[in-house]
Every structure is written in C-alpha cells, then in structure tokens.
Write a structure and sequence with these properties.
Layout lengths: L5 E7 L3 H11 L5 E6 L6 H7 L3 E4 L5 H10 L5 E6 L2 E3 L1 H12 L8 E4 L1 E5 L2 E3 L9 E6 L3 E3 L8 E3 L3 E3 L4 E6 L2 H22 L8 H18 L6 H30 L1
Parallel strand pairs: 1-2, 1-4, 2-3, 6-12, 7-13
Antiparallel strand pairs: 4-9, 5-13, 6-9, 7-8, 10-11
Helix pairs in contact: 1-2, 5-7, 6-7
Length: 259
C-alpha cells in the first residue's frame, strides 16, 4: 500500500513566538505545508518560507471560514490542521506517521488528537483542560470546519478514531493572557448562542449567578484542578469568569435585539 500524502495547514497572525517550534515539529511529517496568514507584521511569514511552506495571504474571515479556506488549498490525501501556536510532540509525529503507513488508515476518515494546554511552558493537565480532544487529522474531501464564531470544530463524513499522543497548545505565556483570551471568547460565544436561539434559562440572571460557581466547583474540585497549583487556581477562576461573562453578554445582546 502506498503511504498517503499529508498536507499540514496552519492559520496564523503574528505567531513569530511559536512558529519556529510549530514548523520544526511538523516539517518531517508533511508532504506540503500551507500557511494562511491574515496580515502578520512580525517574522511569521519569513519563518514559514524558510521551511518551504506555501504562504497564502487571506484577510481574516472568522475562525471556521479561515480554516476552511486553508484546507481548500491542500493537495494531500490527508490534512492535518494546526493553529499557529500548536506544537506536535515527537510522540505524536511518530504516531501519525505510523497511522498513515498502516492498513488501519483505510478504516477511518478522521482522527481526534488530545491537546495539552501550556501556560508559560507549564503543562496544565487537570480540571478539564486535558485531554481536550479535537478532530484535526482527516481525509481530504471528508472533513471541514463548521462556521461557529468560536470553538469551531471539524465535521467529518465518516468513521472517526482517537490518537493517543498530544498536541501542545502554547497559546499563553501567563494567566493574564489566558484571561484576556477568555474575555474575547465570552463575547463571541454570546453572539453564537444568540444566533442559535438561546433559551430563557441561558439568558437568566439566576444562571449567571449559579453556573459560574458550579463550573468552578466541578473543574477545580471534582476534576482535580487544584492539583495544578496556584496557576491552576488562576486559570479556573478565569474560566468561571468566562462562563459568567458569556451569560451576561448573551443577556445584553438579547435585550438589544428586542428594543
């Protein structure tokens, strides 16, 4: 059996901080690398070109649409979609290479990959942050991202399996960066939920009071987030605040839409 070819597609904007590590890990595995850049002003493009990546400029379309644009440019039999701050571990690289070379590849059209959040280089492995599986490896023509404003995901037409080894999500240098990102996600999540038709409970002030505290208890206590130490506490507080904010922004947006 001929080994299927693999296109690695990446979307990026000013990812100089991570791009070298991302591409150094990806290059040995890829038959082609496609970087879709939405206007970087740092060395992101230069680093990508040094790894022989095909660089395409595309103004920002939104998370799902930007990633679909990227996969539309791929020519490989299989596609691995990465963000500009996701670094494959050597174990994951070896696992994907083995899967692509195995007869098993004929049985599936997609594979979910676990991710490990790193904050300032520290892995966060409790409290719901791991394994955080995302479908990122899929047969070309069988998968595409949905059009959600945030937390977009790949929908695959066919059977899906799980890989064992992880991507390292290197997005945040500290807890403050994480909290700022959660603020942005809260606003986008509220818009998405409103568009989907939110229930009265999702918009209620009672939900805004109860849901964040339940989220904190569940993630920090029941899911052992306290084992991630002081950093874990800061992240869980930011996450529960994200839950509170998206409910509040949803209620505010719903009110504006009816007045």
């Amino acid at each position: 059996m001929d080994k299927p070819t693999l296109s690695i597609v990446i979307i990026a904007l000013n990812e100089e901080r991570h791009m070298e590590k991302v591409l150094a890990a990806a290059a040995p595995l890829a038959d082609e690398i496609i970087l879709v850049d939405s206007g970087s002003t740092d060395r992101t493009v230069a680093i990508a070109e040094s790894y022989k990546a095909k660089v395409i400029h595309q103004d920002w379309l939104g998370y799902g649409k930007q990633k679909n644009f990227a996969i539309s440019k791929a020519t490989g039999d299989w596609i691995l979609s990465l963000d500009g701050d996701e670094v494959m571990t050597p174990e994951l690289v070896a696992e994907i290479a083995d899967v692509l070379a195995s007869p098993r590849i004929k049985e599936f059209d997609g594979f979910k990959i676990p991710r490990i959040l790193h904050v300032g280089g520290v892995p966060i492995v409790h409290g719901g942050f791991y394994p955080d599986r995302h479908l990122r490896l899929f047969r070309r023509g069988k998968g595409r991202f949905n059009d959600r404003l945030v937390h977009e995901s790949v929908v695959v037409d066919g059977p899906v399996s799980n890989l064992t080894h992880a991507l390292k999500n290197m997005a945040y240098e500290n807890a403050y960066e994480f909290s700022q990102s959660m603020e942005n996600f809260a606003r986008l999540s509220a818009k998405q939920r409103l568009a989907n038709g939110a229930s009265w409970w999702q918009k209620s002030s009672v939900n805004e009071l109860v849901h964040p505290w339940w989220t904190f208890f569940y993630r920090y206590i029941a899911r052992l987030g306290f084992l991630d130490g002081q950093l874990g506490l800061k992240l869980q507080l930011s996450y529960s605040n994200y839950v509170r904010n998206k409910i509040r922004y949803l209620r505010e947006a719903a009110h504006k839409s009816i007045v």
